Amino acid sequence: MRDLRIRKLCLNICVGESGDRLTRASKVLEQLTGQTPVFSKARYTVRSFGIRRNEKIGVFCTVRGEKA
């Protein structure tokens, strides 16, 4: 029988807008993992979604090793 091991855990929260909701999402990830999350930016401007290029719209964090 094989032992299953988790090497990496990727957590992602995509809010779709910058501002208060994004900072709250980053605080949630920081409390869950104990690490500072990284902000992800929009690649393109999408007028129907109301986002602009290079606007911060999400946060993610990768947990490796024993923490995962």
Automatic annotation (TrEMBL):
Keyword line: Ribonucleoprotein, Ribosomal protein
One example GO MF annotation: structural constituent of ribosome
A GO cellular component annotation in the UniProt record: ribonucleoprotein complex
Classification lineage: Eukaryota, Metazoa, Spiralia, Gnathifera, Rotifera
Domain Large ribosomal subunit protein uL5 N-terminal: 1-52
PANTHER family xrefs: 60S RIBOSOMAL PROTEIN L11-RELATED
GO biological process annotation, one example: translation
Protein name in UniProt: Large ribosomal subunit protein uL5 N-terminal domain-containing protein
Gene source species: Rotaria magnacalcarata
Family according to the record: Belongs to the universal ribosomal protein uL5 family.
Domain of life: Eukaryota
